[in-house]
Amino acid sequence: MKEPLGMTGLVLNEPLLWEKGKRGRSGFSLPRRDVAPSPLDAGLTGEGPDFPDLSEVDVVRHYTRLSTWNFGVDTGMYPLGSCTMKYNPKTNERQASLPGLAGAHPLLPTNLQQGALKLISELEQYLAEITGMDAVTLQPAAGAQGELTGMLLMHAYHQSKGSPRSKIIVPDTAHGTNPASAALCKYRPVPVKSNEQGILTVDAVLEVMDDDTAGIMVTNPNTLGLFEENIKEIAEVVHSKGGLVYGDGANMNAVMGIVRMGDIGVDVMHLNLHKTFSTPHGGGGPGSGPVCVKSHLEPFLPVPRVIKKKDQYILSDDLPDSIGKLHAFYGNFGVMVKSYNYIRSMGPEDLKKASQLAVLNANYVKEMLCGVLHLAYDRPCMHECVFSDRFQKEQKITTLEMAKRLMDYGFHPPTIYFPLVVNGAIMIEPTETESKENIDEFIDAVKSIVNEAKEAPELVREAPKKCKAKRMDETAAARRPCLAG
Ligand SMILES: *Cc1c(COP(=O)(O)O)cnc(C)c1O
């Protein structure tokens, strides 16, 4: 295979700024002043904070070098399953940084906020249309906070009917945050197993659904990258016992313009704007996890809500049954601007095409690597496909080692050891924004690593060799974090 994409040339070392500093160095030079010293100067010349003295070029090189140690979707393919690390068009950033939007203060009087409120209101309508739901809140700042919001809404709904109920059904293919969000709301998650096809069956749900169960949380497509084909019948079972269906829609990237969750029995769901609707993410945000509901849950939505009253958009707190507030002001507005721009610039046809391409790319990876790696469920997938290290057991090569070796080939590793239902899982999500050439390079890299596992296993076992940092001691990193650098 040809030269790998990863770093092969200059890898720059860089000490801490404190180690680089030299007394008396300065980032600027100004003519000697011709006015008397002011009392304020005392703070500057006396015992100030212990900052190193540096020249401008020291500082510029420092940060530029550090930036070359980073890896992001702007540097290469990032096939991290479940996370949808797709490329985000730069125009979205540009619109979000327009001064009128970036500089808008949330405490401005309403008449000076009309543009921002209109944008929020229209984005809510687009998301309602895409999901087939009736009302939306953009307040939650992440998918997991959206789930918590959804659980609070379910709790409030059941409470209004006389009893909050105590349990939630959570399939083994749900995202890990699902049972955690249910538990935060004091619900007891009741696990159900998926079948040998990797999806939920009506019978499995029938067995556990009862009058004390508030509902079910279904990740769809699930974390095996498979569509829950029985969702409609499952929703009927849950509804017949008075329960509600929560849809984890973080994987909407697979089904935009193709499936509307509101049409197949979902009562409440969240989206991840930072995954599907184009906001760079990873490393802590900001994100946005809107919650979309059917009309029977609308009275409980968080306040404030953006409503239109006599041609004016206003933020209304007038919602007596609301679960309250979840985020300061109205959530992460910058992310909303990017998503609004993404949706408007794509239009319905291209949103659908993005999902079709995401699914096509994942199925291409699945077909090309099937037999090279063990495929956990051999059936058409949605936006991601899940393999395991079963075929490499003979050489005692593990998923972790193959993932580390991928870095030597210039790729961010895929998600590993998740979902838990697959031993040694390798979960690959190429996304729609990778070209066939890029995906082929990734496939070649995986094939080459699988060959190395047979012929020169130490290369895989000792990987990464070419990276700045080699194999990390992950236990020490978690137990004794060094926060000083
Ligand atoms: C990413 C993800 C979440 C959690 O979203 P955050 O924004 O990281 O909190 C929940 N469910 C699924 C299926 C996801 O992929």
What do these coordinates show?
The chain folds into 2 domains: 255 residues, Type I PLP-dependent aspartate aminotransferase-like (Major domain) (Aspartate Aminotransferase, domain 2, 3-Layer(aba) Sandwich), CATH 3.40.640; 124 residues, Aspartate Aminotransferase, domain 1 (Alpha-Beta Complex). Strand 12 and strand 13 form a beta hairpin. The strands form 3 sheets. A 7-stranded mixed β-sheet has the order 1-7-6-5-4-2-3, sandwiched between helices. It has a 4-stranded antiparallel β-sheet with strand order 10-11-13-12, covered by helices on one side. A two-stranded antiparallel ribbon has the order 8-9. It has 16 helices and 13 strands. By secondary structure, the protein is an alpha/beta fold. The two termini are 37 Å apart. Bound molecules: pyridoxal-5'-phosphate (PLP).
